[in-house]
Amino acid sequence: MKMVKPRLLHLLHSLNPGGAERLAVQMGQAFAGDFKVSVVCLDEPGLWADELRRRGIPVHCLYRQSGLDISSAVKLAQYCRRHQVDIIHAHQCTPWFYAALSRLVYSPPRLLLEEHGRFFPEVMSRKRIFFNRILIRHLTHRFVAVSEDVKNRLVRYEGLDQTQIEVIYNGVVPDIQLDAAERNQLRRSFGTGAEDFLVGTAGRFDRIKNLPMLLKSIAAAREKISSVRGLLIGNGPAFEQIKRLRDDLGLSDTVVMPGHRDDARKLIQCMDLFVLSSFSEGTSMALLEAIAAGVPVAVTGVGGNPEVVISGLTGWVVASDSVQDLKNAVVEAAFHPEKARQFSDFGRRRFDEKFTLEKMLCGYRRIYSEMMN
Question: Do 15 and 124 have their domain in common?
Fold first, then answer.
């Protein structure tokens, strides 16, 4: 007799490029053998929706209206009833809120919250905390944070019980290593020679990423080392603002901004130093990919960054919004390549211990099994 697969639904804002979205895509594909997987987007399908559909994973959109849209919770409940969903995996707090409300209409699905990161700055809402404590958390079966910092913020700003939250770090699969010839060719395509020191980042261009700090640090480092260049990969609402700042700093010829690139993981390997200058982070996928590729890293000491990068051992950890500190890290990495190489070697060993995709998937596979039982 043929076994019926349990039905797993990933709920998120959209499938536009981002860390949480990429995880949802990867997890959907990874668990498609064990579950009948589908994805529901609250706001819009996004750029990656077709990729999942081509792989046989349906993507549905609720097209949520602005403000509190109770109809979205009703539509989600109707979708879950129609497709007999067993588990809702809600990525981030707004999808979690609507998933919990949907269980008031159709209660059978078990609900998991995975919180990837937090807003900056955080806003305390006692009304939200009260509502979560009396209702939303009681409609939820499991809680996961991607770092200890995110866990602590869920307790403080969402009113959750610390003992109920499990930390599962994000994980990635290391990309195929570029050979020297291909790496040099890619660098040349961005105007970067073998003698240049390429500082870069990859991700969504958003205020929370504090890309002005990175640009200003590159400009300051170039006063000491003229061979420092920049590569900022990605797109988002702050793209034009960052581009204007780049030009105002006189970096238009030395900092390349190619926009969104499907080969971003490959381009990260072209960097001599990967930088994450964010005001707040969960567990950055791009950071993990850089570490897995053996690229030295420098990060701000915020969110989950210090849980991934150990200062003075696996990379540079600098104060948030300190252009001077980040400039010093860039200069030190450029002047002392042997130290940077030692950091990247230790970082790769730690990556293999804590941040592989398989380790992450094992954690969620266990949770799904416990929820079903």
Answer: yes
